[in-house]
Write a structure and sequence with these properties.
Radius of gyration: 21 Å
Low-confidence stretches: 5-12
Number of strands: 17
Structural class: alpha/beta
Order of helices and strands: EEHEHEHEEHEHEHEHEHEHHHEEEEEE
Strand order of the largest sheet: 1-3-2-4-5-6-15-14
Strand content: 15-25%
Largest sheet: 8 strands, mixed
Length: about 375
């Protein structure tokens, strides 16, 4: 398996100039302000999937080859990368972690007629209109964040504060939480961290009598300073800190915060117990990454497993690939993957991946505790 980053000229769909490889464009955040750690895990899963697909004979005897583009969490850069990859003749697009970036890539892929299997972006409205060209492995935000809201209610939390930054993704999250919590007696109070220092956030939490604070902000800044400030405020000793977007999943969280980073619930898209395939892939990903793989790494692997199966069954023609989404039935690392049309979701959706609410165990921060499943 090889991963290429150089620019190529136009050529027939899915083929290298010498016709020897089937090209898949990979969109990954590899530099800041992108979440580099998530990008590294996503790319590891994509690369492992390509390696195993090629070990199994590739696509009709031809190897798969990733052509990687760094999106750096920039929607415009991602859209330009989609244009470039389409000109290069990739058979399909894969990847992307950041939801807003995935939305820009999906819109461009839809416009160009380029199949895109989104690995991790969760915004419900990944495209403005229903599209045949885009499918997604990650659960839609509305489903995952409703599960998180149910966890909060089950744990007795009714007054929820959310520390937010301007973003379509965060605004969507606030709306989902409010719609789920308010009819059940909950209240959601927004705290704009652009206007509040971490100590001021603590004061507002006390004033609002909040029992939980959710971090709808970037990592490491301002998430890390907020967590440190709240942990050190004796008035807030009993408050729950949560991070539904999954910031504590990655080792950088524990490295930055130490013990302060434990007992922070977040959403994770893994089954309670791994299947034999999941266990084998998890071991291989651990060796590749030098640490335990995140759920994002498994999403990357499953993305290639689906694309390899589709390309073997239907060839590298883009239209046939797009038409095949409803016929996919692939055993992934987290269950059998099938796509369907789901109410309110504009793309072909795996309905549904496993969803957990977990946290890092205070007694052993490298271990995760399952708090709730949905």
């Amino acid at each position: 398996m090889s991963t290429r980053v150089n620019t190529r000229s136009s050529r027939p769909e899915g083929e290298r100039a010498d016709g020897s490889a089937v090209l898949i464009g990979a969109l990954v955040p590899l530099t800041r302000p992108g979440w580099v750690e998530a990008g590294r895990h996503l790319l590891a899963g994509l690369e492992l999937g390509v390696r195993e697909a090629n070990d199994a004979g590739g696509v009709a005897g031809r190897p798969l080859e990733l052509v990687v583009r760094d999106t750096a969490a920039d929607p415009e850069r991602a859209a330009a990368a989609v244009d470039e990859l389409a000109r290069m003749g990739v058979a399909a697009l894969a990847g992307e972690y950041h939801s807003v970036v995935a939305r820009a890539a999906a819109a461009r892929a839809d416009a160009l007629g380029l199949p895109f299997l989104c690995s991790s972006g969760v915004l419900d409205a990944l495209t403005d209109q229903p599209t045949r060209w885009v499918a997604r492995l990650a659960p839609a935000q509305s489903r995952g964040w409703r599960v998180f809201a149910d966890f909060l209610l089950g744990a007795g939390h009714r007054r929820i504060a959310v520390a937010t930054q301007p973003s379509v993704y965060w605004a969507s999250g606030v709306r989902i939480l409010r719609d789920r919590l308010t009819p059940r007696g909950g209240a959601v109070v927004e705290l704009d961290v652009g206007a509040l220092a971490p100590t001021a956030v603590c004061d507002r939490l006390v004033d609002q009598r909040a029992t939980a604070l959710l971090l709808l902000v970037g990592h490491p800044d301002p998430a890390v300073p907020i967590v440190r400030s709240v942990r050190r405020d004796r008035r807030l000793a009993d408050i729950l800190i949560g991070a539904p977007a999954g910031q504590p999943e990655f080792s950088g969280w524990a490295t930055s915060l130490g013990d302060d980073g434990s007992a922070v619930p977040f959403l994770r898209y893994l089954p309670e117990r791994p299947s034999p395939l999941g266990a084998r892939v998890g071991k291989a990903l651990s060796e590749r990454l030098g640490e335990a793989p995140s759920f994002v790494a498994y999403e990357g692997y499953d993305t290639i497993a689906v694309l390899a199966d589709v390309l073997r069954s239907h060839g590298v023609d883009r239209a046939r690939t797009a038409d095949s989404w409803p016929r996919v039935a692939v055993e992934g690392t987290r269950g059998q993957i099938r796509f369907s049309r789901t109410n309110g979701i504009s793309v072909w959706q795996w309905a549904w991946p496993p969803i957990q609410v977990v946290d890092r165990d205070p007694a052993r921060p490298d271990r995760f505790r399952i708090l709730h499943s949905g």
